[in-house]
Amino acid sequence: MSQQPPYDPRRRPPPSRTGQGRPGPEQPPVVRRRAGTPPSWADNTRQQRPDRHRPPQQDPRAWSAVPQQGRTDAPRQDPRAYAPPPPRRTGPPAPPPTPPQQRRRRPRWGRHIGIGLLVVLLLLVGGAVWADTSLSRVDALANYDGRPGDTPGTNWLLVGSDSRTGLTPEQEAALATGGDIGAGRTDTILLIHIPSSGPTTMVSLPRDWYVPIPGNGEDKLNASFSLGGAPLLVQTVEGVTGLHIDHYAEVGFGGFADMVDAIGGVDICVPYDIVDPLAGIDLRPGCQELSGPQALGFVRSRATALADIDRMNNQRLFLSSLLSKATGPSTFLNPFRAVPLVRGVVRSLQVDDGDHIWNLASLGWALRGEMVTTTIPVSGFEDVDGSGNVLLSDREKASRFFDLLANDQQLPPDLIGGG
Q1: Can you tell me the mean pLDDT for 302-320?
Q2: N or C: where does the chain have the smaller number of CB atoms within 10 Å of the terminal CB?
Q3: What span, in angstroms and rounded, lies between the C-alpha atoms of 118 and 254?
Q4: What number of CA atoms fall less than 13 Å from residue 260's CA on the CB side?
Q5: Domain ranges of the chain
């Protein structure tokens, strides 16, 4: 029995691993020879260097999975088919994925606030335009020969008229106005000086102050209003004070009551008993809230020990309380008070032709802060034929008093209080 030669891997190529039903690549030929016969040179060459006759062996999986350039007959298979299986989990099962939560929309407070402020601004602008066009106007600051030039600071002349215009008989009875008196008179005359810096000065000008009236000789100050209305009153005040009046405002009886009732009354500390049937009031000392008719009687009454002096002090006290409440948040931010207040001011107020609603707003702002309240220096009272009992000023002190205001300077203590 012949002995088989040892196994030579070069003589037996690995079996083909092609796809199902497809022939593998060409295998090198197997050279068979007899036992004991040495291989020839050609056989050795063919067996040792097969790459000279055919392409090298490649992994059929790679050949079938990745298409080769220029090869159209290679099958296209999914490479994932040859991927190794994922490792088996040994821990607890993973929780199911949570569904994505819907993002909660944040409220756009900034946008809402901006829209609200815009609406408020439009309402304020619209209300200011309406109020400015609805104001009654008079040519109070008419130019005339010898009028004082412009002085530093801002000077207002505020007039409280006892005119009954627009009041019904029932309203006249409720306000105790005393019926029709013909030509209007001034119950209150206030000079407001707003300096460039420092506190505002409010000066009460007595209605019975005996002064020269242009074209009419000497008489009480309020007689100038009866004789020539607002223009003659302004000319008289400018002549005796030397101040240039920049703005003018006048309010009647009905306006006082309407403005007080619109803001829910004013808080006033009454210094003494005031019982005056002519003014329609009966007040006791102490801090209390006054209604419109009560406040009107409080500023009109002269049934006190010092008559007009007490009356001027009460008027300054009332005006301070009125402006403090009218410009406060309880009124400014409350439309149920602010709207009636503006309506009452517009209906009862009369201003100069060159004045506007924003001028009145600046006046209110100047009067709500620190303020000096006083009256002119007086020397006493005297009976004068044709004028009755009149008030005389201290001419030397009054001259220094108004010179300081004309130069935008603060008053010293010895000139404050009518001394």
Answers
A1: 79
A2: N
A3: 35
A4: 27
A5: 133-415
DSSP string, 125-181: HHHHHHHHHH-EEE--S---TTPPPP-SSEEEEEEEE---TT--HHHHHHHT--S--
**pLDDT tens-digit profile of 268-297?**
888 888 888 887 888 888 888 988 888 888
Measured at the CA of 307, the angle between CA 203 and CA 319, to 5 degrees, comes to 40
Beta-bridge partner residues of 186: 161
Nearest to 131 by CA among 386, 405, 342: 342
In the sheet that holds 200-204, the strands lie side by side as 136-138, 349-352, 247-251, 154-161, 186-194, 200-204, 371-375
pTM: 0.65
Cα 222 to Cα 212: distance, rounded to the nearest angstrom = 12
Helix 109-134 to helix 357-367 angle (10° resolution) is: 110
Q: Which of 58-62, 99-103, 208-212, 232-236 has the lowest mean pLDDT?
A: 58-62
Lookup: tokens for 212: 């020269």
- Beta bridge partners, 281, equal 276
Amino acid, res. 28: P
Classify residue 47 as exposed, middle or buried by CB count within 10 Å of its CB (0-12, 13-18, 19+).
middle
pLDDT digits (tens, 9 = 90+) for 184-193: 567 789 999 9
Rg over CA atoms, the chain = 53
CA–CA separation, 358 and 276 (whole Å): 37
**Residue linked to tokens 């402020």:** 117
Give residue for tokens 């460039």.
196
* DSSP code of residue 209: B
